Write a sequence for this structure.
């Protein structure tokens, strides 16, 4: 009997290891995979029936005996995995292997299309690889949305005896877990993407900087880097795993570079661009996990194939991460362009609590809170920007009607105050004043409202990086779209 | 934790030697020190600074910048309940206050703030002594620390 069982951190946090042990006790050793992304069904196992993988979940250890004895009629049977509505609606390009293969089997990786992109790239001139990535329309998936090919072109053109590829895996945005799932479920894909980048720009060393809150991803990536090295796949390019130390700001690329160098994770002023003077002052590609992990499929299938997905200037696919108070939470990779209504209500099934959806925060702690009236916004960089919002890392956090939006606004300032690196005044001081001022509003002092508007403008215009610069998004969107939560406080005086 | 603070040598020298060839070795060294002793002992800092040829002020600056590095010995249990938005949407704030209330007075339990464990699709989330807990309930967290 062929059995697969997720060992994604979310599956393990929900008891997957107990299920694995029960299987082992029954004499069955499951192939441990990443997660298919249907987290409400975790721990989820798959069993091959007549050559087709069938899904079962959510499982407990007590289900295992009955499941192995007679899978077809088990109450947790969900049917063929690929036929489930959640799977059928997706366009899994970047996450094609996640949940399917053994993450640390090079053989499995090759059998499912791995290394095709690298082999194709290695047969091409570096400038042609850069051009292919540019033509694909791929933009930075970490949130900034900068065209990946353009960044690579700058590094390719930079002179220097040494260049670096740095993967930003400091995924700190609440509601985001795509980087973690990719690293745990298909780590070789990320390394392949980095190797293609290295060939394209002439780098010989790569670092993956992973946040310390992701122990599973760190372990899997370190193992994968060893497998890659021992297989001798890219003798001129080596990848090393580095671990962050609990600072959200290190997701900002220049802070990350300082942290890698062994310094305080303080933001650097730009210019110079990291592409020209990055790690240890050398030309450096800094890309997010999903950006780099999307490169192998772009090279394998061609830029046009990737570019044909999406809308406007948002090309290709985006792994939506649906989270918070939502019935069906998980990862859903799809072409850009879905409306928030489709994402939250059709795919996510509405709230888990069964109460009405009130607000959805898109793009992490620096992202705006969107009200129902904006649920028709198509998912794309420019489309969100036009609404005073951002897609960020495509984390989508759903709140029901019990949420206090004034408390959420205060939290946004509090988070900025805690995580500010302290380099620039608008962020370091502004966030502290912001917490105090929103607290005043919540206690009923309506005269503090204009101060917040003014402070937000100062932070937005005057901060060195996105932490101070974007904290106004959640604050101002909460005040604009949910004024009753701020007025209620005033009336209560 | 395999050795007691106060007996940093020769283990500390070994840790430094293991990492000295890395580019930017300071964070890997500090992580290894914390893995060894459960915190970063004050008396380790001048030794590391000398080995890496950096100043005492610089190493103090780095250790104090990052939330992860503990300056005091860690007690038996470390409980981290996610405080970020996705977990807030699923009752994370109430969970945190309930657990803190139930474990009040337990000197062997250290609460550390954490903002996102990447388990946002099974919020609220927690990490207890390094083990992740999804859809965390107060009972499940308290049980793990023997309460």
């Amino acid at each position: 009997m062929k059995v697969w069982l997720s060992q994604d951190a979310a599956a393990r946090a929900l008891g997957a290891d107990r299920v694995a042990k029960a299987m082992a006790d029954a004499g069955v050793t499951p192939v441990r995979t990443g997660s298919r992304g249907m987290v409400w069904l975790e721990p989820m196992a798959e069993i091959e029936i007549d050559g087709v993988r069938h899904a079962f979940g959510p499982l407990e250890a007590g289900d295992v005996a009955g499941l192995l004895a007679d899978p077809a009629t088990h109450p947790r049977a969900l049917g063929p995995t690929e036929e489930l509505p959640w799977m059928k609606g997706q366009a899994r390009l970047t996450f094609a292997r996640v949940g399917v293969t053994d993450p640390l089997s090079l053989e499995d990786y090759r059998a499912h299309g791995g290394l095709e992109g690298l082999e194709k790239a290695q047969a091409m001139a570096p400038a042609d690889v850069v051009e292919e990535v540019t033509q694909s329309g791929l933009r930075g998936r970490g949130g900034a949305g900068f065209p990946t090919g353009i960044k690579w072109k700058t590094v390719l053109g930079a002179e220097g005896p040494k260049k670096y590829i740095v993967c930003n895996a400091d995924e700190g945005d609440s509601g985001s877990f795509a980087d973690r799932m990719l690293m745990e479920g298909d780590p070789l894909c990320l390394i392949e993407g980095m190797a293609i980048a290295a060939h394209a720009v002439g780098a010989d060393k790569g670092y993956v900087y992973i946040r310390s809150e992701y122990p599973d991803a760190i372990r899997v990536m370190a193992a994968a880097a060893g497998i890659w090295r021992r297989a001798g796949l890219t003798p001129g390019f080596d990848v090393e795993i580095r671990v962050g130390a609990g600072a959200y700001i290190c997701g900002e690329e220049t802070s990350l570079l300082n942290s890698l160098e062994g310094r305080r994770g303080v933001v650097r002023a730009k210019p110079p661009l990291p592409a020209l003077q990055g790690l240890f002052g050398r030309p450096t590609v800094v890309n997010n996990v999903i950006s780099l992990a999307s490169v192998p499929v772009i090279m394998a299938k061609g830029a046009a194939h990737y570019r044909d997905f999406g809308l406007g200037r948002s090309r290709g696919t985006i792994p939506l991460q649906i989270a918070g108070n939502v019935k069906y939470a998980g990862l859903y990779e799809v072409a850009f362009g879905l409306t928030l209504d489709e994402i939250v209500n059709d795919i996510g099934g509405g709230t888990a609590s069964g109460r009405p959806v009130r607000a959805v925060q898109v793009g992490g702690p620096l992202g705006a809170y969107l009200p129902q009236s904006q649920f028709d916004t198509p998912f794309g960089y420019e489309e969100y920007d036009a609404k005073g919002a951002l897609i960020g890392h495509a984390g989508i956090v759903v709140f029901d009607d019990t949420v206090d939006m004034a408390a959420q606004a205060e939290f946004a300032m509090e988070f900025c105050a805690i995580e500010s690196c302290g380099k620039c005044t608008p962020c370091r001081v502004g966030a502290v004043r912001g917490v105090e001022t929103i607290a005043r509003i919540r206690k009923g002092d309506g005269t503090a409202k204009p101060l917040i508007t003014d402070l937000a403008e100062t932070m937005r215009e005057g901060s060195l990086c996105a932490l101070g610069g974007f904290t106004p998004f959640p604050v101002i969107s909460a005040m604009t779209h949910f004024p009753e939560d701020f007025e209620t406080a005033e009336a209560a005086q | 934790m395999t050795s007691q603070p106060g007996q940093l040598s020769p283990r500390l020298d070994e840790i430094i030697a293991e990492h000295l060839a890395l580019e930017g070795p300071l964070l890997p060294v500090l992580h290894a020190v914390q893995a060894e002793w459960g915190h970063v002992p004050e008396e380790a800092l001048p030794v590391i600074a000398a080995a890496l040829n950096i100043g005492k002020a610089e190493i103090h600056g780095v250790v104090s910048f990052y939330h992860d590095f503990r300056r005091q010995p860690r007690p038996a249990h470390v409980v981290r309940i996610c405080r970020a938005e996705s977990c807030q949407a699923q009752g994370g704030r109430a969970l945190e206050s309930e657990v803190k209330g139930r474990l009040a007075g337990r000197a062997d339990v250290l609460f550390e703030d954490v903002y996102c464990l990447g388990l946002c699709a099974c919020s609220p989330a927690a990490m207890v002594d390094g083990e992740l807990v999804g859809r965390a309930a107060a009972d499940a967290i308290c049980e793990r620390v023997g309460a």
User: Anything to note?
Assistant: The first helix of chain A runs from residue 9 to 13.
